[in-house]
Amino acid sequence: MRVAVLIPALNEEEALPLVLADLARRAPDRVVVVDNGSADRTAEVARAAGAEVVSEPKRGYGAACLAGLKHLTHDPPDVLIFLDGDHSDDVNDLPRLLAPLHDGAADLVIGDRTRRAERGALLPQQRVGNVVATTLIRALTGLRTRDMGPFRAIRWPALMGLNMSDVAFGWMVEMHMKAARAGLRVVELPVSYRPRRGESKISGTVRGSIKAGVGMLGACWTYR
């Protein structure tokens, strides 16, 4: 099973080397870092660590993910891992996320941060956003999840079948909604979660939290 890792990154010069060093010990087949318009040396440190670097100057989590998918399309993996570049996700959980895919028991495995997050890692606004989004998704599709976390693994053919399109904060909601509609086998597993390194661009600010919340609610309506 060929595994690729996709890391959208914006101004993660400090944290990204730690993430890539952790991944090196897990030896995925490919690591792709999408530089989402960073003003620091994110791209340089990614290349120095041996990652493939894609530039996507248009800001937006979904835009970065879509650029990474386009890059991988020419030589796709069997499974794609999404994780953040701020060192909050613990790559030691990778084998647990991959196991249901390897065993043929799932198409999409979502890392649930809510039960094993360290103190201060998940801010109150993130927890509230999770509850609202997952409750709406359950009401609209029947899919039961606890978290909208970024650390997840999905089979490449299943991902391509979702025709992902959101370029902003609705990416995770879109994936959950479309996975449910497509009848994908979705498994959610507890994962560790640490306080991020550096300043959060979304959950750490009131403006970012509001934009993310509006984006998620809008995505629930769009993909209902």
Please provide a written account of the structure.
It is built from eight helices and seven strands, in the order E-H-E-H-E-H-E-H-E-H-E-H-H-E-H. It has helices at residues 16-26, 42-48, 61-72, 94-102, 124-141, 156-162, 171-182, 206-222, and strands spanning 3-9, 30-35, 52-55, 79-82, 108-112, 152-155, 186-190. Helix 5 (124-141) runs parallel beside helix 7 and helix 7 (171-182) runs parallel beside helix 8. The longest helix is centred in the middle third of the chain and has 18 residues, at 124-141. 46% of the residues are buried. The protein has a seven-stranded mixed sheet with strand order 3-2-1-4-6-5-7, with helices on both faces. It has 224 residues and is α/β, with parallel strands linked by helices. The protein starts with a strand and ends with a helix. The protein has a single domain (3-222), classed as Spore Coat Polysaccharide Biosynthesis Protein SpsA, Chain A (Alpha-Beta Complex), CATH 3.90.550.10.
